[in-house]
Amino acid sequence: MSDRPKLLARVDLALADGVALLNGPRGIGKTTTLNAAVAQAHARGEIVLRANGACTERWIAGQALADLLASCPGEVTADLRALARPARRGTRTQILRRTGFLGLLARLTADQDVLVAIDDVHWIDTVSADVIAHAARRADDRIRFLFAGQDAAAVPCQASWITVPPMTVCEVADLLAPHRVTERTVSQVHVEAAGNPGVALAVCTGQVRGHVEDALATLTATAWDTVLVCALAARPTSTLLHRSGCSDPDADLEDAVECSLVVVEDGAIRFTPPAAAAVVADLAGAAARHHVHRRLARAVTSAAEVQRHRALSHPEPDERLASALITAARSARRSPGFAAELFLMAANRFPPEKPGRRFDALLSAVEVGVGAGVPGVVAEAARAVLAESANPVHRVRARTALVRHAGQSAPGASDLLAAAEADATDDLASQAGVSLWRAYAATVAADPRTADEEAARAVANAQTIGDTITEAYALALRARARRLLRRPGWKACLDEALAVSLPDTAGHMHLTPQHLAARFATYDDQIDEARTILQRLLGVAEQGPMEDLMSPLCGLVEVAVRQGRCTEAMQHARRAVRTAGQAALSPGPGWYVTALAELAGGDLALARFYAEHGVRACTQDGDVVYRLRNLHALGQTLARQGETRQAIEMLREVQRTEAALGHADPTVLRWQPELVLCLVRVGDHLEAERLVSATRELLDGLGARGAGAGLDRVLAFAWAASGRIDEAIDLVRGAATVFAALGQPLEQGRCLLIEAAVHRRRRRYTAAAHSAATALDVFTRIDAVPWARHARAVAARIAAVGSGVQDLTTTERRVAELVAEGATNREIAQHLYVSPKTVEATLTRVYRKLGLRSRAQLARQLDRQS
Fold it and tell me: Which keywords appear in this protein's UniProt record, sorted alphabetically (predicted)?
């Protein structure tokens, strides 16, 4: 889906004032937007005069004006054509050009409105620019001017500037769809390109070098130097550029941003895409690189960065320099991506007679760099270990680190673990590590039986060698698996894991017992406790690799949705999506929580996009856990969009998969209430009540009051459909009370909507209106935008039906109700002791008062569901 229609609406609004300029960096989509606006103008029947500026033609006087005249409909007189001839010069000629072009536009508007559209306006010749600017200043409201490019002489000062925004990840996904890239690639490219479609296509098609060369061709020599300094600095900033001797770095940066080489965010400078930095460095040559590194060594203030630049200016093997880089890397552990780069540099500078120190540095580069957004560093270091080291322990460490690097990608982990297991036969520590990561891979595959078995092996081996850290992580995985299977001892496993002090969790946040405790608290509706733990973990994660941010961020989105903190949920979700792209992680988890956040406080169409793409991403990665979650989110979205049978298909797939894998904890995903609701809507009441009963049995003993209340909410809907109105009212009110006590306003509001629906079935329109209004108040207070929109529509329908019914007499209302229940005229006559003709006449009056024409319309009007 695209936000471009909104952009075009902004363009139309700006053109109402006569002149608009589309602005933005190269490749952002200015030309595409201008073309779309031109197409709309053609569709409205307007005359469009079109010209394109060109760098090579900017010296040809009158060229742009000639292009505009050439696009005029019909014949342009010889006098007018002469105005664009380059040979004609002088003040009088220019005045004639101005008046002649303005007169032409005035004649064209006699029958139709006119749009003058000029792309790359900054490249048009000065003669044409003067004439066009004159016309733009003096034209009437039937002539509009749309420019694309940078500020130029042709653009009058009164022009409305519209900056074309970066593409959303949704738009980048649509853009790259013909290239059949993976969802993970879409996520990564969106972040790397900063949403710039031109850059995104360059990355996707392998044309980054061409993109860089084209951009550099537009820069001055001093700007080129500034860009090279940025490319070689570890953390380029404007301050560093000044310190390194750049003459006018701020102006140079503006030029680099304009040609889409870099973006500046919160003072930090980064290349778009990041690979462009390496291309810039390569194009500069070794001598220039060494010179700039020497400049930077004098300019940086961090000791670690000083060592980095000294090493890069002297690339030969040097044990003393390598040792200094190791020390610098250890001091930079709070910036794991930078530290990993330093470890790799150190490894490559140890002389051949020091292989042990080289392998230690390589392994550190792999283990520190995983999830830190430096996949190239990790891959190079891991390849070197696996190709050069004969030590099986080294190879196991490299491969298990790469399992972490694979993240949610189960297929990628499988081959790595098989090879690691072959190397681990004679070392208990290696065996414990392999079993731990096998348990994790099984967890990603939603296979709790295998996860429990492998985690038990990891615990046993870790206990034998006294490795309490591996033991704690394995116990946490056992607790997760055993709870999902409803096996005894899961709480004891978690308590034992929580008792272990973990000095450094960098890169393992998703395995920590504390993170699992937060998950279990969420399942058990102890939302405040879960939020407290997750906020603390987020603070810790911010000091480690980006990978660590994902677990607390995703958990905080779920907690925020439950607590009705819709704005907070959206913020955390956006950060999770950005983090996944920066660290080259699977987008599946981030897209799932973004779908949840959109369902609660955003837009249903966006929720559907993220859930659908999340399903595809997880399918590609073999991540069954988040595939089920995205299917659940997609099912919810389809149900709310009225596609009930498709929603049932999604939720049934979740049901079948969980059953096959032995999942027996309905507090985790809570798809059952959504499926019950859909089953009732298609009339399968018996199956709906069976599902409620089976889920209640699984909930027995878990103590999750919110899960039970969620079942009560949808069971009330089922009972109302079966005619058990009073019981349904009592049940749904009880559920609303539970959710209010748990501090879950979103679910409380949903209960109120069900209550309104139940009241409508009994024709209690005043009570129904009160319930809908209360729900609207709840949703409005917590910024639950789509739910508030839904509640407002429900309230409007109730008001419309209620006001119409109030106009009916007692007899008319009774006849209408019997019709809605499916009675024939004869049956109604027998029931009311009147003749069929009387019933027919009464029904005619009902139709007239309610503005209806058939029995079916009357039934829908009185019995429409919320």
Answer: DNA-binding, Transcription, Transcription regulation
Query: Measured between alpha carbons, how far is 15 from 3 in angstroms, rounded to an integer?
Result: 19
Interstrand relation of 262-265 and 268-271 (parallel, antiparallel or unpaired)? antiparallel
Write the CB contacts of 741 (distance below 8 Å, at least 6 apart in sequence): none
Which residues is 149 bridged to in the sheet? Answer: none
How far apart are the C-alpha atoms of 22 and 836, rounded to whole Å?
Answer: 70
Query: In this structure, are residues 469 and 502 in contact, taking their beta carbons and an 8 Å threshold?
Result: yes
In angstroms, rounded to a whole number, what is the distance separating the alpha carbons of residues 83 and 65?
8
Residue labelled with tokens 């496993």 = 493
Cα separation, 439 vs 462, in Å, equals 14
With DSSP H G I counted as helix, E B as strand and the rest as coil, what are the percentages for the chain, rounded to 5? 70, 5, 25
Amino acid at 367: E
CB count, 10 Å around CB of 254? 12
How is residue 455 written in tokens? 């985690």
DSSP string, 189-250: HHHHTTT-HHHHHHHHTT-HHHHHHHHHTTS-HHHHHHHHHHHH-SS-BHHHHHHTT-SSHH
DSSP 510: G
Q: In sequence order, which residues have a C-beta less than 8 Å from that of residue 803 and are 6 or more positions away?
A: none
Q: Residue 800: CB partners within 8 Å, gap ≥ 6? A: none
Q: Are 224 and 264 in contact (CB under 8 A)?
A: no
CB distance 719 to 727 below 8 Å: yes
d(CA 625, CA 657): 10
Closest Cα partner for 124 from 93, 99, 149? 149
Q: What pLDDT score was predicted for residue 77?
A: 54
Specify whether the CB–CB gap between 28 and 95 falls below 8 A.
Answer: no
Specify the pTM: 0.85
The gap from C-alpha 558 to its chain's centroid, in whole angstroms, comes to: 15
Angstrom distance (rounded) from CA 599 to CA 629? 14
Residue with tokens 């660590």: 548
Closest alpha carbon to 533 in 545, 547, 507, 551? 551
Q: Which residue has the tokens 């990608």?
A: 409
Long-range pairs of 408-411 with CB within 8 A, sequence gap ≥ 24: 408/444, 408/585, 408/586, 408/588, 408/589, 408/618, 408/621, 408/623, 408/625, 408/626, 409/586, 409/621, 409/622, 409/623, 410/441, 410/444, 410/445, 410/621, 410/622, 410/623, 410/624, 411/621, 411/622
- The pLDDT tens digits for 394-405 are 999 999 888 877
Sequence-separated (6 or more) residues with CB below 8 Å from residue 397: 363, 366, 367, 385, 430, 433
Each residue's pLDDT tens digit, 457-501: 999 999 999 999 999 999 999 999 999 999 999 999 999 999 999
Query: Measuring CA to CA, which residue among 810, 803, 738, 735 is closest to residue 769?
Result: 803
Which residues touch 53 (CB under 8 Å, ≥6 apart)?
64, 118, 119, 120, 121, 122, 123, 124, 149
Q: Report in angstroms the alpha-carbon separations of 185 from 124, 169, 200, 631.
A: 38, 11, 10, 21
**Whole-angstrom distance between the N-terminal and C-terminal Cα of the chain?**
27
Nearest to 538 by CA among 563, 509, 511, 500: 509
Distance CA 815, CA 824 (A): 10
Contact 642, 619 (CB under 8 A): no
Which positions ≥6 away from 165 have C-beta within 8 Å?
3, 7, 24, 28, 195
CA neighbor of 482 nearest in space, from 494, 473, 470: 494
Q: How far apart are CA 512 and CA 541, in angstroms?
A: 12
**Bridge partners (DSSP) listed for residue 23:** 163
Give the SS3 label for residue 577. helix
Which pLDDT score is estimated for 785? 95
d(CA 851, CA 548): 61
Closest CA to 396 of 372, 369, 417: 417
Q: Note whether 308 and 328 are within 8 A (CB).
A: yes
Helix (H, G, I), strand (E, B) or coil at 164: coil
Percent of the chain topping pLDDT 90: 64
Q: Are 330 and 339 in contact (CB under 8 A)?
A: yes
* 3-class secondary-structure state, position 162: strand
Looking at 230-234, 648-652, 833-837, which range is the least confident one? 833-837
